[in-house]
Amino acid sequence: MSDLSLKIEKIAQETSNVKSFLLKSNDGAALPEFTAGAHIDVMVTGEDGTTDKRSYSLASDPKDTSAYTLGILREVEGKGGSAFMHDKLSEGDVIEASNPKNHFPLDNDAEDNLLIAGGIGVTPILAMARTLSANGAKFNMHYAARAPEEMAFKTDVEAVCGENGHLYFDGGDPSKGINLKELLSNRQGGLHLFVCGPGGLIEAVRTTATEQGWPENTVHYEVFKPAELDGEDSEMEVILSESGKTYTIPAGETILDVLLEEGVDIDYDCKMGICGLCAVKVVDGEPDHRDYVLTEGEREDEKLFCPCISRAKGGSITLES
Ligand code: FES
């Protein structure tokens, strides 16, 4: 059962493919508090009538418990969650959702904050800017989109950030957007970096930060959508060491989904490789890690592996479960 019944108070077309949803509690009560960077899991219904959950970050002011705001990109090649939100819902409808959870919080140790957003990755970053601004904390926000009319929440970002907001319009060519090399050079002590957006942006930011000597614990990131299953992937086998059972994982499915369908009890949340809840130990085989959460130490020394997104090199892997 879901934690929250949320009534859609208002839907606004932010850009040609992004809608914002203003949600209030269906019974008029205050909503649970949340912290900047949090998301809720919304129950969506697919074309075939099956239900599933999708995680959407909260873009609204964390101090405001009267309503939540989501910003949702309609993904042409998505699995149907965003199409449901865009095409099937109207103002006045009630949706079911989880309480807010936060896998991407601000860091109390930060003396200064560098916020970077690409596309719809703006949603948690905007909530962070709201909190930092309200607290009088030091921050700068850099936000890239194709064009002004394709920049969701542009007015909010300008109002919240003022001169600390830096907007980029790259026409779809990242090389014309944020100059990461310049932005991430000469890190001053106490500065933390928070980035959310497409996988390519996050990878570029992480790589550049590493090259520029940023300590790992000062670089915080969240992907706004799961990595695509690679069309090149092939079928593989997963063996669970405790039961000794073998499962076949088709090319287009994740290990986690197959194990859940088969009734294996395994913890999970994001299904995107960002929360770490599904992590299990590798007993044998060579992992192809694709998560965004495990550290090198967790992968190499503790042999952890996220079955919601990672695969096996060599066609077979044995997991402790
Ligand atoms: S379910 Fe979140 S990392 Fe796998």
User: How many separate domains?
Assistant: 3
| Percent strand | 25-35%
**What small-molecule ligands were found?**
FE2/S2 (inorganic) cluster
The succession of helices and strands, N to C, reads: EEEEEHEEHEHEHEHEEEHEHEE
**Alpha carbon gap, first and last residue:** 26 Å
The structural class is alpha/beta
In order across it, which strands form the biggest sheet? 9-8-7-10-11
Total strands: the figure is 16
Most strands sheet: 5 strands, parallel
Any overview of this molecule?
- By secondary structure, the protein is of the alpha/beta class.
- The model has no long low-confidence stretch (mean pLDDT 92).
- The chain has a 5-stranded parallel β-sheet, sandwiched between helices. It has a 5-stranded mixed β-sheet with strand order 13-12-16-14-15.
- It contains 7 helices and 16 strands.
- Helix 2 runs parallel beside helix 3 (154-161).
- Helix content is 18%, strand content 32%.
- It has 3 domains: 4-97, Elongation Factor Tu (Ef-tu), domain 3; 112-223, Rossmann fold; 236-320, Beta-grasp domain (Ubiquitin-like (UB roll)).
- It is globular, with a radius of gyration of 20 Å.
- FE2/S2 (inorganic) cluster is lined by residues 268-271, 273-278, 291, 293, 306, 308.
